[in-house]
Amino acid sequence: MTRSIDRRAVLQGAAAIAAATVAAPALAQARTEVSFFYPVAVGGPITRLIDSFAADFEKENPSIALKPIYAGTYQETIVKALTAHKSGTPPVTSVLLSTDMFTLIDEEAIVPFDDFIRTDADKAWLKSFFPGFMENSQTEGKTWGIPFQRSTVVLYWNKEAFKEAGLDPDKPPATWAEQVAFAEKLTRRDGGNTTQWGLQIPASGFPYWLFQGLTTQAGAILMNSAGNRTAYDAPEVIEALQYWVDLSRKHKVHPTGIVEWGTTPRDFFERKCAMMWTTTGNLTSVRANAKFPFGVGMLPAGKRRGSPTGGGNFYLSKKVSKAEQEAAFKFIQWITTPERAAKWGIDTGYVATRKDSWDTPEMKAYVAGFPAAAVARDQLEFAVAELSTHENQRVTKALNDGLQAALTGTKTPEAAMKDAQAEAERILRAYR
């Protein structure tokens, strides 16, 4: 009897093993793969963070396989995403610039998130993001992007340089006039050679974005919410560009020509400039690399304070299965919980995009020890939507070309902006 039972047990065990062996590939095949385009050109801390998030998500959601693909710069990533869309094999989700929203809609490359918002918890999640970030995420009553790595432009200053110039190291310039006056005291020359500029505002990479800080402060809004009109030639816009040009040509406190986006932080670290405008996304890098005490403040006010928002949103691809979209939506909700939004902000310097993430114990402790981290959040009160229109890359290029013409002295600010507006009008007329 015992041997008979043992034999049955052995047979049952063998059958169970055989069944499991057959089921294992079936379970593996049942995993939903979510390909995920993320814009970073090289490896490093950011890719390690994303990889870590992906591994943690998969542990909690074994039925979903997350596949981050590091696709290059933002510009390279949007090109790759649209190419993949046209070939019928797009990534399931992507982090692309918030300003790519109209382009992605026009290409019918994405779906709105509204169809995935079903429960009260979903609705509360969607309402948790700062309204300033949602301006570049919603249009015509629909939500097309979810804020993830978002930013504003902020002012960084070298406190040692301020002391040496007789300035209060804890008081940044609050107005345009003060910015010029401070920069004059901070600019150092050795004979005919400038060894330290008072201020640098980059004009490569994202010149329109830095310029939008000035236009907002001058009282101008560069585009309408429908994305089919621009106001590049408004008097306030020309005033803002004249101020930027005057920093170098009239006041001589800023390098002439085009200041490079990528080298400006290095110039700051090497004390080649005492103040710089750049993204809050550089905050962690500045904290790690500046060998002197530094300050972070809101941009100085013209007629008002102001900065554009910036950075990337999550988008959901249209040409993927419903199961893939649902899995990606689950991941997007997971990575944007208050605690993870706080961790992302702390580890990268980007602005944590949810209001409640600033109430987490981790974020409260971080801000208590590093108050500069809250500057970009506080500046959201004065922020405006980043320049975004239909045919966004072409319309933005018209502005960038005009800015560079004025900054290099090829055109006057007025002529440069009138030409830029004419080109934008030509492109956007079809969308009205």
TrEMBL record:
It comes from the Bacteria. Residues 1-28 form the signal peptide. It is found in: Periplasm. It holds the Pfam family SBP_bac_8. Keywords: Periplasm, Signal. PANTHER family: ABC TRANSPORTER SUBSTRATE-BINDING PROTEIN, ARABINOSE-BINDING PROTEIN-RELATED. This is ABC transporter substrate-binding protein. It comes from Phreatobacter stygius.
